[in-house]
């Protein structure tokens, strides 16, 4: 038995914010952002929330997979920006779509979250506990950015991506995952206030803080190794992979990974130019765009890879 992606969906906020728009509110430029990252614009949520975008992405994935709410046994949302601590985004989706039978919970593995959600769903499906799962990566990162830190806030965007997975004869062939908590503080968000009356809170609330160069080094060294491990585990040659759908953090990271793997860059589809980095949502949104643009054909082999906060990383080899 294998875990197969049978449908995808995504949802981006309405509001487009270009690099030029950002240059009107901070000391930056389209030239700097485009040349350093490949990002041209991103969508930022105004009315939308992590839950509303997730619900819409879920409905689109269900329609794409031709799966009803009653068929869904499991809902997992990977996010670092759920609207509330509880109820979870997954429970809000469950209520909105009427998936009464489903077990629903959120996970936090930052930008690797969708890969981790896929592996959890795979474990449940392999055990035979569940048959059909709805998995998402969804973020409203604009809520947790330090908008006075131009080196970080220009990189990120908001959105949600969803996939329906089901037990099948083909699908997820292998995956590799890892975490390096000891290096976690190179990408942090410490903005939780403590409401205990015995504890004095820090006066400043901290939002996302990133040592960009350390994260960059981590990504370009870890991701190729992880992808190779997943390919070895799957028994698939790298030349047989049709597409590499990587977390969309920076075009230079993707180019460096392609170079280290000795794979042509045109096998790495891109959404960061119009989405920016949407953490856990990057990979499922990219996958949905590939699916809807007709890039994916049955039998194709695809590598998915996520990396980021934690630090965490994950790669998967799937047969479409
Ligand atoms: O999903 C999580 C994964 N995160 C990542 O993958 C991020 C990985 N890191 C990166 O993508 C890159 O390190 C960045 C894009 C974040 C930064 O690129 P960089 O080439 O490492 O630039 P830098 O931090 O060394 O900064 C170079 C210069 C500095 O000015 P000085 O000191 O050389 O005068 C910065 O102050 O660029 C300046 N700078 C900016 N200038 C215009 C930093 N941000 C900006 C900006 N606009 N937005």
| Content-based structural category | alpha/beta
Low-confidence stretches: none
The share of residues in helices is 25-40%
C-alpha Rg, in Å? 19 Å
> N-to-C SSE series?
EEHHEHEHEHEHEEEEHEHHHEE
Distance between the termini: 15 Å
Query: Main sheet, how many strands, which sense, barrel?
Result: 5 strands, mixed
Mean pLDDT across the residues is 97
SSE topology:
Layout: E1 2-11, E2 15-18, H1 19-23, H2 30-37, E3 41-44, H3 50-65, E4 74-78, H4 89-97, E5 103-107, H5 113-127, E6 132-140, H6 150-153, E7 158-168, E8 172-179, E9 187-189, E10 208-210, H7 212-234, E11 243-246, H8 251-261, H9 272-275, H10 282-292, E12 301-308, E13 312-319
Parallel strand pairs: 4-5, 4-6, 11-12
Antiparallel strand pairs: 1-7, 2-3, 6-7, 8-13, 9-10, 12-13
Helix pairs in contact: 3-4, 7-8
The structure holds oxa(dethia)-CoA.
Tell me what you see in this structure:
There is one protein chain. With 320 residues, the chain is an alpha/beta fold. The protein folds into two domains: 2-169, Thiolase/Chalcone synthase (Peroxisomal Thiolase, Chain A, domain 1, 3-Layer(aba) Sandwich), CATH 3.40.47.10; 174-319, Thiolase/Chalcone synthase (Peroxisomal Thiolase, Chain A, domain 1, 3-Layer(aba) Sandwich), CATH 3.40.47.10. Helices cover 33% and strands 26% of the residues. The chain has ten helices and 13 strands. The chain has helices spanning 19-23, 30-37, 50-65, 89-97, 113-127, 150-153, 212-234, 251-261, 272-275, 282-292, and strands at 2-11, 15-18, 41-44, 74-78, 103-107, 132-140, 158-168, 172-179, 187-189, 208-210, 243-246, 301-308, 312-319. The strands form four sheets. The protein has a five-stranded mixed sheet, with helices on both faces. A four-stranded mixed sheet has the order 8-13-12-11, sandwiched between helices. Strands 2-3 form a two-stranded antiparallel ribbon. A hairpin with a 3-residue loop joins strand 12 (301-308) and strand 13. Helix 3 (50-65) packs across helix 4 (89-97). The chain starts with a strand and ends with a strand. The mean pLDDT is 97. Oxa(dethia)-CoA is lined by residues 28, 32-33, 36-37, 111, 150-151, 154, 187, 212-213, 215-216, 219, 249-250, 253, 277, 279, 308. The site of oxa(dethia)-CoA has 21 residues, from helix 2, helix 6 and helix 7.
